[in-house]
Design a protein that fits this description.
heterodimer, A: Immunoglobulin-like, six-stranded antiparallel β-sheet, 1 helix, 10 strands, B: mainly beta, Lipocalin, twelve-stranded antiparallel beta barrel
């Protein structure tokens, strides 16, 4: 009988304790923030802000707008000398996601579409300035789905 | 009879990333050879983050695995085995897709270091094994379109060392399997990664028990699985997180007079342990094994 209770306690203690979080509640946390220069590229001395147009979900591909501007003149949008590129990365598992599409829509303004995270969890949006295949500078924004 | 019905040491991997480190077929009976065909249908139920919070999956993400496992005695107490898997994965949602192909291949050599010649009431039968995993299934880091739908393996060469212990008392039986393994680092150059993937060690512990009545066995098995983080050195530079989950299985098996066994099992990864950094699945497995006597 003692052995039975010992085994029972072991199995009960080992039961999983699900702690579900609804991803819909995380949307507002995943913008780039209210700072005047939320992401700063030293190489070109440019700030970057991003704002979701469509937040991605399991059923929906996402889109966001990213804007580059000078640190001391936020109202003036500036097109970077190097090519902006965005990469999605899941650091905990060491893999990426499907490639996004970056389209210039105005001076210093880019639409990033086809944003899809292949599983729920903690991701990084890696903003890169590239010269052909070389990454000149990279900044990371954490995002939780 | 119990040891002939005592199936269930095959590990189920986290469903995000194809097959994991599996223990191939081990002959735990007095037979000369065995061959098994295994079909598994699994569906992802939730993702668990490294901080332990869970996210329920709404989209359909299911995998079908057809596996062939064989083992043969090569000399008295020595045996060798091989496991081949063919996997088909389908996912709905914004980027719905289907992919199929060969999974990882696992081979092993086993040695019966604890024979059960005198039917000792306490000492179990013990078989140690050395296993080798070949990354014939594409890993999630090598996915062609980045979606991971075509990931059917861990993607690393690996070696493992483990032991299976079995014991039966009249109608009851118990089994255990413990193994540790090391996965080797790998160079990857594609759109996702340009550098070295550095996995580490992993291990698993399985404990099961069953009740036998005539030709039928009802059993349960819990398997705890751990994997070291996978770090990326290169572009991008990235620190991984450890992966942990547990499989809880209920197994019903039937022993035919022709020295064959059929089994049906249900495995749930949401019930036990303290999962971390993994996708959790629920699966159903159909198993048929034929054995040949010495």
């Amino acid at each position: 009988m003692k052995i039975f209770f010992l085994l029972l306690m072991t199995f009960l203690y080992s039961c999983a304790k699900p702690n579900y979080v609804d991803p819909a509640n995380l949307k507002e946390q995943n913008n780039s923030g209210q700072s005047s220069c939320p992401i700063y590229f030293e190489e070109e001395r440019l700030c970057l802000s991003m704002k979701w147009i469509t937040f991605p979900s399991e059923e929906t591909v996402g889109t966001f707008i990213m804007k580059f501007y000078a640190e001391d003149a936020p109202e003036i949008l500036v097109t970077p000398h190097y090519i902006p590129f965005v990469k999605l990365w899941m650091p905990s598992m060491g893999h990426g996601s499907s490639p996004v599409t970056v389209t210039k829509i105005a001076e210093g303004t880019y639409e990033v579409s086809e944003v899809y995270f292949i599983m729920l969890g903690e991701w990084e949006i890696r903003y890169q300035l590239k010269n052909n295949e070389d990454v000149i500078e990279e900044k990371i924004q954490n995002i939780t789905l | 009879m119990a040891s002939q019905l005592c199936w269930g040491t095959t590990l189920k991997a986290a469903s995000c990333c194809g097959a994991g480190f599996t223990i191939p077929s081990i002959i735990t009976t007095d037979d000369k050879a065995q061959l098994a065909g295994i079909y598994t249908y699994s569906k992802v139920h939730a993702d668990v983050l490294p901080d332990g919070t869970w996210r329920e999956r709404n989209e359909d993400d299911h995998t079908q695995i057809f596996k062939l496992e064989g083992a043969h005695i090569i000399e008295d107490r020595w045996q060798a085995g091989l496991s081949l898997a063919f996997q088909k994965r389908e996912r709905s949602g914004a980027l719905s897709d289907t992919s199929s192909g060969l999974g990882d291949i696992t081979g092993q050599i086993g040695y019966e270091y604890l024979p059960d010649w005198n039917y000792n009431p306490f000492r179990p039968k013990g078989i140690g094994y050395l296993s080798l995993i070949a990354p014939t299934g594409r890993s999630i880091n090598e996915s062609e379109d980045g979606t991971g739908i075509d990931a059917r393996g861990r993607g690393f060469w690996g070696i493992g060392l483990g032991t299976v212990l079995t014991k039966s008392w009249r109608r009851w039986d118990a089994n255990a399997n413990v193994e540790i393994h090391h996965s080797f680092q790998k160079e990857v150059h594609n759109d996702q990664v340009n550098g070295t993937l550095k996995p580490g060690q992993g291990g698993s512990l399985a404990i099961g028990s069953g009740y036998n009545w005539k030709s039928i066995r009802l059993g349960g098995l819990i398997t705890w699985v751990y994997e070291d983080p996978v770090d990326v050195v290169g572009t991008p530079d990235s620190q991984g997180q450890l992966q942990r989950y547990a499989n809880g299985s209920l197994i019903m098996s039937y022993l035919f007079k022709t020295n064959a066994t059929a089994a049906l099992s249900y495995t749930d990864q949401t019930l036990f342990g303290s999962p971390s950094n993994t996708a959790l699945s629920k699966s159903i497995t159909l198993f048929f094994q034929q054995r040949w006597q010495r």
